[in-house]
Automatic annotation (TrEMBL):
This protein's name: Glutamate decarboxylase like 1
InterPro entries for the chain: PyrdxlP-dep_de-COase, PyrdxlP-dep_Trfase, PyrdxlP-dep_Trfase_major, Pyridoxal-P_BS
Pfam families: Pyridoxal_deC (PF00282)
Gene Ontology biological process: carboxylic acid metabolic process
Organism: Cairina moschata
Organism classification: Eukaryota, Metazoa, Chordata, Craniata, Vertebrata
Keywords on record: Decarboxylase, Lyase, Pyridoxal phosphate
Positions of post-translational N6-(pyridoxal phosphate)lysine modification: K463
GO CC annotations, alphabetized: cytoplasm
Necessary cofactors: pyridoxal 5'-phosphate
UniProt family annotation: Belongs to the group II decarboxylase family.
CDD domains with a match to the protein in the record: DOPA_deC_like
PANTHER family: ACIDIC AMINO ACID DECARBOXYLASE GADL1, GLUTAMATE DECARBOXYLASE-RELATED
């Protein structure tokens, strides 16, 4: 209540709390707090604060009239800027009419009610369309949301707490037009430019500059559609074009038109995938996709859940393995448990540490197993670590192998690791977030030889297969309902057992989420469009391009491979002319360490391409080129090397 009072009647005066507005004080930095933010001169009531009008009127009658803007005065934002539209759209808040006048339903009162400036008659429809033809189309759409509707219904106006309840308060026609215009921009500025190498990958601006270019401030009054469309253009202009053929920065890139359309559909339908009653199609789609992924892993049966990422899948798996190890943890919690230990390689994704800390296992209880020179876990070292943990009296429960490590793209030897897991009774989870897509390729699926022996697998089709972020599945070999047993909370308001349909399709209780996106759908539509052979072709082509790049690197002076890649991660140094004659030693490596960040800065400021670099386990900064997108061609590989040479020629 206090929020309301302080926000609506401010005009430079402090309003004392009354009995009606007793309540917790407004937090000091709350945007509606008058005491802390005396600049605010108007505002809208947060829903559920008790309704604005009556309260506000009572307040008005009890005090002297408050000064407000003059009729039709230029409306100013809290910062003093003249706002679009010129006249005060929030006249209602500045000059509230008497309750009687509003309840009486006179046209003036209604104009006030719907936010039309007082003293201005509603614009007749014919005049509005004339204006529309003369270029004022967008502003016209916004003139008084639902004004016409409201006026038509004024005779039957129903007011509750001063809020008119007749008809919707959204102008859907204007909204539809806005969507249409915005889609045109998306089509022209993102989709049609996705293949154009003459476009920049990024339009780099430093944060402070970008803040000045973009109008980020959110104000009390909404912006015009024209302004919003301009903002959309700005957002696109200054965002990184990850669908550009020269975006090689991360483990995702490119554009897939089918998964994009699937995303448009799901964004428009806005479903939540937990019960069959609200997501019948998407639940069946998810079931089908999970079944197919399980087939590729080589399990006869299994279970799974799409979730917000490989990191989350790894966390799911860690918790599931622990639940299998000690099911009572679900009710009893951590107390009384032995010291649980898990094993993963030194090259694992950092989400392993995060998961261990988040789940209360502790990062010290993640035992990192040594890798060979290619970044693969050494099975003998794993065996030693398990023995060590046992000797220490701790309780080993899980091994997390990686199929496709993040930096080097290495694949752990799954068969040998599975032997050790079987011997010690440990859950085997395979983080195939990056490398899982190789399963689709008959040529490259051998990289994951032995994956069928895993208990769980994390696989992100949003990486190599371009299904669009986020599209990630945790797949589990168990088919006895372990996932559900581990995660279910049996919320009675959602998962009623006496529904009129087969409630086994209400799969949401397997998830740690409540609302969940239909991420399987984009993968499904893409798979439908390309067929398995189309997906396979993508994987084969990405790996063939990576091979081409490797051979080119070997041929060119100044380029040096870190190692022969197994997958699509091509890691290399560029040694600029001035370093080529230097002796190998600390000074050389220090200077080389500085090359990649400088080249990266130059490529981003030019906008010509984006490529990642990092130091890694004792090695100085090197480039990591990741080939994914089917838009990328041999020419782009050549360009990449030429561009590095060009950007570093003076170094
Ligand atoms: C091997 C591996 N696992 C897990 C992840 C995390 O996946 P996400 O970004 O979907 O959380 C990554 C990300 O690159 C990865 O490379």
């Amino acid at each position: 209540m206090r929020v309301l009072q302080q926000s609506f009647f401010t005009s430079g005066r402090k309003v004392k709390p009354t009995e009606t507005n007793s309540g917790p004080p407004t937090p000091p930095n709350h945007p509606f707090s008058f005491y802390q933010n005396p600049k605010i001169t108007h505002g809208t009531a947060p829903l559920g604060t008790g309704g604005g009008f009556r309260l506000r009127h009572r307040r008005l009658r009890a005090t002297a009239p408050l000064p407000g803007p003059k009729r039709g005065a230029r409306h100013r934002s809290p910062e003093g800027r003249s706002l679009p539209g010129g006249r005060c759209p929030a006249a209602i808040f500045c000059h509230p009419p008497s309750e009687k006048a509003v309840a009486g339903g006179g046209p003036a009162a209604l104009r006030v009610l719907i936010g039309e400036p007082r003293g201005q008659a509603p614009v007749p429809a014919a005049a509005r369309s004339r204006r529309a033809r003369h270029g004022g189309r967008l502003e016209e759409m916004e003139v008084g949301i639902c004004k016409q509707d409201m006026l038509q219904k004024k005779k039957n106006a129903v007011l509750v707490d001063g809020v008119i309840l007749n008809g919707p308060i959204m102008d859907s026609k204007a909204g539809e037009k806005f969507v249409e215009e915005a889609c045109k921009i998306i089509m022209e500025e993102v989709i049609q430019k996705a293949n154009d190498v003459t476009e920049k990958v990024c339009e780099w601006r430093a944060p402070e500059t970008l803040k000045k270019i973009l109008d980020l401030e959110m104000r009390d009054t909404g912006e015009s559609h024209q302004k919003l469309l301009q903002l959309c253009q700005d957002v696109i202009q200054y965002s990184v074009k990850t669908s550009h053929p020269r975006f090689f920065n991360q483990l995702y890139a490119g554009i897939d038109y089918y998964s994009l359309v699937a995303r448009f559909i799901t964004e428009a339908l806005n479903p939540s995938v937990y019960t069959y009653e609200v997501s019948p199609v998407f639940l069946l789609v998810e079931e089908t996709v999970i079944k197919k992924m399980i087939e590729f892993i080589g399990w006869e049966e299994g279970d799974g859940i799409f979730n917000p990422g490989g990191s989350v899948s790894n966390m799911y798996a860690m918790n599931l393995a622990r639940y299998k190890f000690c099911p009572e943890i679900k009710e009893k919690g951590l107390s009384g448990l032995p010291r649980l230990v898990l094993f993963t390689s030194e090259e694992c994704h950092y989400s392993m540490k995060k998961a261990a800390s988040f789940l209360g296992i502790g990062t010290e209880n993640v035992y990192f197993v040594k890798t060979d020179e290619r970044g693969k876990m050494i099975p003998e070292e794993l065996e030693k670590q398990v023995q060590r943990a046992r000797k220490e009296g701790s309780a080993p429960f899980l091994v997390c192998a990686t199929a496709g490590t993040t930096v080097l793209g290495a694949f752990d030897p799954l068969d040998e690791i599975a032997d050790i897991c079987e011997k010690h009774g440990l859950w085997l989870h395979v983080d195939a977030s990056w490398g899982g897509s190789a399963l689709i390729s008959r040529k490259h699926c051998r990289l994951l030889c032995g994956i069928h022996r895993a208990d769980s697998v994390a696989w992100n089709p949003h990486k190599m297969l371009l299904a669009g972020i986020q599209c990630c599945a945790l797949l589990v070999k168990d088919n006895s309902g372990l996932l559900k047993k581990c995660y279910s909370a049996k919320a009675a308001y959602l998962f009623q057992q006496d529904k009129f349909y087969d409630v086994s399709y209400d799969t949401g209780d397997k998830s740690i989420q409540c609302s969940r996106r239909p991420d399987a759908f984009k993968f499904w539509l893409m798979w439908k469009a390309l067929g398995t052979t189309g997906l396979e072709e993508r994987v084969n082509r990405a790996l063939a391009l990576a091979r081409y790049l490797v051979e080119e690197i070997k041929k060119r002076e100044g380029f040096q491979l870190l190692l022969e890649p197994e997958y699509a991660n091509v890691c290399f140094w560029y040694i600029p002319p001035s370093l080529r004659k230097m002796e190998d030693g600390p000074e050389f490596w220090q200077k080389l360490h500085e090359v990649a960040p400088i080249v990266k800065e130059r490529m981003m400021k030019k906008g010509s391409m984006m490529l990642g670099y990092q130091p890694h386990r004792g090695k100085v900064n090197f480039f990591r080129q990741v080939v994914i997108s089917p838009q990328v061609s041999r020419e782009d590989m050549d360009f990449l090397l030429d561009e590095i040479e060009l950007l570093a020629k003076d170094l």
